[in-house]
């Protein structure tokens, strides 16, 4: 980070985006947004890599997008998306992310608080649009999330000349030669493959982003493939490594610090991991069959807005959706065994509201941002042994946080309902409740009116 003449640290824009304040008449119009959505109730703790720097200095937070010295084309893009001022994580992270020389970042903030814009703006700010080579790589755990991130890159970069390309399965033809796009977003396996085949030339890469970084680095998950990509980055130039997630369990955090050395860190306290605006409920079902009956009874409530039902296995998602469809309910199912084009069509239909109920697995537990989703059902609770075969049946609290975070986006209200059906599942839920320090409220299964009443109240 650079100090100015007075010895203060000055966040500066980078790359081809000069620090010019747009002339008054050129300033993009600031839309009137509901500022309540931006007021955040949680405090983040910032640990700066430079021990001399004061994290409470106003210089480390930006109350407006103008203060960041972003290029006016990017400001136009931001306002065009309806953003009027930075969210808390953007306010804290962006000055650090955009400072020169670039520093690494390990950023944590709750689900739905605007992490994507923070790293997308950084990528767009650092790209030199006159160079037709990849300059920013972004990895995400699913094709659905990669596609969503790309839509933010394209929207924010709408008034720039940015060129983008996907590194997701079945996107580029097998015989593709060289990619000239500047920002590449994808999943780690395909990204590694394209680099190995020299379709992606990394000689100009400046920024490397991992969204859902704890998942991307987890040795039981995508860690190996992510590391392969990292090891193929050029050794002769400094690449800014940016890691973001709502969760960073201790065992991953240690590795994250090695992966992004000397990073500035923005952390959440344990009790702040899930957002207040998501009301958490549970229903005590008698057995597996009763879970299905309750889900069907919930259907009219599920379709008030949009809902996501999470199951442990692909076959459960398919089975429930086939059964509900046969009984005349309109539901869709999505999981990793479906082929790429089918997955794209299903999520697009859901995103555009053509489907109201999506039955799925952990494949879309993370990152997916669909504002109309006001209910998440954990038909099966997430368990540790789904990601690590050697683990026991402890609940997977991180995945739980991400799953319920598909609702209650950016200050909106949402509810989650866990189905428990025996002592074991009840205890798993109790462990989640204890870990998060938030009460999960019981709803009677035999009283649909009470259920409706509670839900209406929670969503009011
Ligand atoms: N400054 C802003 N003003 C208004 N809306 C914003 C702002 N920043 C982000 N949003 C909106 O907030 C929603 C959530 O943002 P985003 O998807 O980046 O959350 P996230 O923190 O990445 O969540 P997750 O941890 O679930 O991935 C999006 O719909 C986004 O458009």
UniProtKB/TrEMBL annotation:
- InterPro entries under this entry? DEAD/DEAH_box_helicase_dom, Helicase_ATP-bd, Helicase_C-like, P-loop_NTPase, RNA-helicase_DEAD-box_CS, RNA_helicase_DEAD_Q_motif
Report motif location: Q motif.
Answer: 63-91
From the UniProt record, which GO molecular function terms apply?
ATP binding; hydrolase activity; RNA binding; RNA helicase activity
> Which of UniProt's keywords are assigned here?
ATP-binding, Helicase, Hydrolase, Nucleotide-binding, RNA-binding
Q: Where is this region: Disordered?
A: 1-32
Domain of life from the UniProt record: Eukaryota
Catalytic activity, reaction form:
ATP + H2O = ADP + phosphate + H(+)
Q: Where is the composition biased (Low complexity)?
A: 11-22
Give residue ranges for domain DEAD-box RNA helicase Q.
63-91
Query: What Enzyme Commission number(s) appear in the record?
Result: 3.6.4.13
Q: Where is the Helicase ATP-binding domain?
A: 96-266
Domain Helicase C-terminal: where? 277-451
Protein family per UniProt: Belongs to the DEAD box helicase family.
SUPFAM superfamilies for this protein? P-loop containing nucleoside triphosphate hydrolases (SSF52540)
Q: What is this protein called?
A: RNA helicase
């Amino acid at each position: 980070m650079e100090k100015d003449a007075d010895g203060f640290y000055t966040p500066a824009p980078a790359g081809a985006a000069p620090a010019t304040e747009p002339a008054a008449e050129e300033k993009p119009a600031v839309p009137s947004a509901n500022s309540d959505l931006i007021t955040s109730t949680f405090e983040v703790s910032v640990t700066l890599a430079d021990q001399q720097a004061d994290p409470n200095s106003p210089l480390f937070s930006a109350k407006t997008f103008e203060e960041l010295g972003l290029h006016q084309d990017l400001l136009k893009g931001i306002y065009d998306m309806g953003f009027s001022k930075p969210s808390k994580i953007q306010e804290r992270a962006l000055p650090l992310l955009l400072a020169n020389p670039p520093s690494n970042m390990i950023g944590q903030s709750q689900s739905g608080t605007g992490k994507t814009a923070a790293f997308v703006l950084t990528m767009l700010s650092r790209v030199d649009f006159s160079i037709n080579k990849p300059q920013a790589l972004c990895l995400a755990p699913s094709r659905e999330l990669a596609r969503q991130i790309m839509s933010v890159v394209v929207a924010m970069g709408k008034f720039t000349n940015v060129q983008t390309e996907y590194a997701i399965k079945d996107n580029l033809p097998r015989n593709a030669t060289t990619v000239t796009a500047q920002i590449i977003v994808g999943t780690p396996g395909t990204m590694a493959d394209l680099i190995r085949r020299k379709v992606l030339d990394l000689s100009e890469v400046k920024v490397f982003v991992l969204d859902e970084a704890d998942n991307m680095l987890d040795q039981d998950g995508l860690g190996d493939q992510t590391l392969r990509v990292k090891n193929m980055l050029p050794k002769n130039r400094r690449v800014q490594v940016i890691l973001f997630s709502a969760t960073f369990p201790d065992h991953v955090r240690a590795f994250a610090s090695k992966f992004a050395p000397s990073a500035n860190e923005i952390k959440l306290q344990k009790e702040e991991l899930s957002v207040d605006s998501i009301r958490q409920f549970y229903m005590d079902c008698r057995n597996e069959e009763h879970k299905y009956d309750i889900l069907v009874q919930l259907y009219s409530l599920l379709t008030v807005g949009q809902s996501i039902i999470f199951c442990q296995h692909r076959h459960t998602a398919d089975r429930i959706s086939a059964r509900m469809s046969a009984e005349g309910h309109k539901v869709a199912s999505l999981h990793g065994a479906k082929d790429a084009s089918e997955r794209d069509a299903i999520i697009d239909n859901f995103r555009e509201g053509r489907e109201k109920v999506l039955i799925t697995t952990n494949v879309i537990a993370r990152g997916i941002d669909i504002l109309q989703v006001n209910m998440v059902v954990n038909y099966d609770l997430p368990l540790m042994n789904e990601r690590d075969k050697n683990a026991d049946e402890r609940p997977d609290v991180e995945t739980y946080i991400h799953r319920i975070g598909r609702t209650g986006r950016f200050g909106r209200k949402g509810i989650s309902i866990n189905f428990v059906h025996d002592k074991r599942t009840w205890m798993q839920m109790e462990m989640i409740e204890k870990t998060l320090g938030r009460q999960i409220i019981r709803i009677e299964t035999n009283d649909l009116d009470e259920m409706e009443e509670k839900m209406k109240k929670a969503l009011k």
